[in-house]
């Protein structure tokens, strides 16, 4: 795997995303249907749509034939060379009508190609257009859908997906502020990589794991932060990790108390962040009380040490 300036990378397959979209379709149907009105050539039209089947994600760009037939977003002409996915809606029911006129209906597949990229610490989703599997044969109907459906779908998507940020998380008592620096679409996985400050992005080809439905990769800086924070949180409890007392009847009492105070010189291997080394800061105190066989006599010996 090549090196890159990221501290955490998460990759998912299309099947994993599709499972989430299926749950959305089952549990939140209201989000996947709607309506809109607009004026086309002086006539007011109403339009309704309903995603009758769950949407799916395609981790590849449309081919040349599909792209040529895509109704493109304003200002878009060429297909971007990277980061392109398609939201595929296998069956969308459309119904539209002019004021006072007869309604028309159409059910067909629809796809929305989009480019994903990391910009200024956020994921930006640029919707590129709308493709219809079987657009209406009538030129006026095609014009209505192009003027009403396409701007509405792209406008709704652009408003909701303008910038996706990762909120700072508090882990083990420490604030962890990750921001996206890379979005990679490999054909098998959608990968989002994020970094701790200071952040930078590298245009480096990376061989992501290809045999996992979901993978999470953590870099050495993040591992150092999390392991150190977890250790310090444990130390701040100030609870003894060893608290032992032994007695020898009539002869002596012995006690040993140890407190964990953190890690020293924590080092995470840059090539294998699962491999780490550190010194352990432990403070301990021991005491032995000897009982004399002479009346009124005893001896107490104490020792303490930091390790």
Explain how this protein is built.
- This protein has 307 residues and is an alpha+beta fold.
- The chain folds into 2 domains: 153 residues, no CATH class; 86 residues, no CATH class.
- 19% of the residues lie in helices and 47% in strands.
- It is built from 4 helices and 18 strands.
- The strands form 4 sheets. Strands 2, 3, 4, 5, 6, 7, 8 and 9 form an 8-stranded antiparallel beta sheet that branches. Strands 12-13-1-14 form a 4-stranded antiparallel beta sheet.
- A hairpin with a 2-residue loop joins strand 2 and strand 3.
- The longest helix is centred in the middle third of the chain and has 22 residues.
- The mean pLDDT is 86.
Poorly predicted residue ranges: none
Main structural class:
alpha+beta
Quaternary organisation of the protein chains: single chain
Radius of gyration (Å): 31 Å
Portion of residues within helices: 10-25%
Profile the largest sheet: 8 strands, antiparallel
Please tally the helical runs, counting DSSP H or I stretches of 4 or more residues: 4
Shape: elongated
Report the order of strands and helices: EHEEEHEEEEEHEEEEEHEEEE
Strand portion, in percent? Answer: over 45%
**Could you tell me the number of beta strands?**
18
Tell me, rounded to a whole number, the average pLDDT.
Answer: 86
Termini separation: 39 Å
Total individual domains: 2
């Amino acid at each position: 795997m090549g090196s890159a300036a990221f501290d955490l990378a998460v990759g998912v397959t299309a099947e994993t995303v599709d499972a989430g979209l299926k749950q959305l379709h089952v549990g939140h149907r209201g989000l996947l249907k709607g309506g809109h009105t607009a004026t086309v050539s002086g006539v007011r039209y109403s339009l309704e749509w309903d995603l009758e089947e769950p949407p799916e994600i395609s981790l590849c760009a449309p081919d040349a034939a599909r792209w040529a037939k895509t109704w493109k977003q304003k200002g878009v002409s060429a297909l971007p060379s990277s980061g392109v996915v398609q939201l595929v809606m296998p069956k969308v029911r459309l119904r539209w009508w002019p004021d006072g006129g007869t309604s028309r209906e159409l059910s067909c597949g629809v796809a929305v190609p989009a480019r994903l990229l990391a910009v200024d610490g956020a994921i930006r989703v640029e919707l590129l257009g709308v493709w219809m599997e079987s657009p209406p044969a009538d030129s006026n109907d095609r014009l209505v859908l192009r003027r009403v459906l396409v701007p509405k779908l792209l406008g709704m998507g652009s408003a909701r997906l303008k910038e996706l940020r990762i909120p700072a998380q508090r882990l083990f008592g420490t604030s962890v502020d990750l921001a996206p620096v890379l979005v990679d679409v490999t054909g098998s996985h959608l990968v989002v990589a994020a970094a701790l400050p200071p952040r930078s992005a590298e245009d480096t080809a990376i061989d992501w794991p290809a045999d996992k439905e979901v993978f999470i990769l953590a870099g050495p800086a993040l591992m150092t932060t999390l392991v150190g924070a977890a250790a310090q949180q444990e130390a701040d409890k100030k609870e003894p990790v060893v608290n032992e007392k032994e007695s020898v009847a009539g002869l002596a009492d012995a006690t040993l108390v140890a407190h964990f105070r953190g890690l020293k010189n924590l080092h995470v291997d840059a090539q294998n962040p699962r491999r780490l080394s550190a010194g352990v800061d432990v403070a301990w105190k021991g005491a032995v009380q000897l009982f004399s066989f002479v009346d009124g006599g005893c001896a107490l010996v104490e020792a303490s040490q930091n390790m």
